[in-house]
Amino acid sequence: MNAIPSFLGFPSGLPEGIEPVAAVFGAAYGSTYTCKDSSGYALAADAIRAASQEDAGLIDHWDFDLGGPLFDAGTPCCLDRGNVPTRMEDNAGNRARIEATTREVLATGAAPVLLGGDDSVVTPFLAGFGDAGPIWIVQIDAHIDWRDALHGERYGYSSPMRRASEMPHVAGIVQVGMRGIGSARRAEVEDAARFGSHLVTARQVHAEGVAAALRHIPEGARVVMTVDCDGLDPCMMPGVAAPSPGGLTYTQVIDTIAGVGTRGRLVGFDLVELFPPADIGGISALTASRLVVNAIGTIIRQR
User: Fold this and answer.
1) In angstroms, rounded to a whole number, what is the distance separating the alpha carbons of residues 235 and 247?
2) Using one digit for the tens of pLDDT, what is the confidence trace for 219-268?
3) Ordered structural domains, the chain, with CATH
4) pTM of this prediction?
């Protein structure tokens, strides 16, 4: 069986004297629910890496999303650290390893880029910025993820924004793309509003453009973006566990990524909830790969 190549062919290390700008790593599980089989998410990070091979030999070519080559004629300066070892139901151990890896990347001066995995990996990823705050969070998701606990678990995939709101280094949250119905009840929506989270529905973005979200980010803010694949419309991202019509387009998401880099500074990025067993012809993995490329390209251009 052939080994999965790295994301975009990035090396695992750089020559002496070259500092990394971004470091990619994968993590399948954070805190899983005992009554749910999350094993399909373990395929996601490597599916994104495999899809990225479409672009791996072309990264010196013109990228029309970025307005130039990925590294813009500069020295390649990104790493792929492989996958954090995680396993279902080792919740505390998974969280500790993901947070530690995030902190290790930040200590090198690079921006961490996490390939999930289910949405519970977001909580320890954000916790890893504890010494790098204050940060703002921009979340793209069909759901607000403010449950205090579900099935007795406080760190599962229904709770990352609730847990983020409790982190002292999180200065604010902008949530983008909500629509339809999910696990949130009136109480969770009211709690998000009470914290001061800015809720920008998919309908608002379709009507007003991504400025509806970007205007809530303070100028110069350090921003970590978290993109749940179900935030996109299922016509372009079918490979999710909870598809919902009316989602954001690919262009709206990459415009949000670019806008974050212009209005503030993108200091971290994660993409979660790709569910390869539901993908169609690999289109979701390819779309996910392109979103990560846009995030890395934005991080590089900030330097």
Assistant:
1) 9
2) 999 999 999 999 999 999 999 999 999 999 999 999 999 999 999 999 99
3) 7-302 (3.40.800.10)
4) 0.96
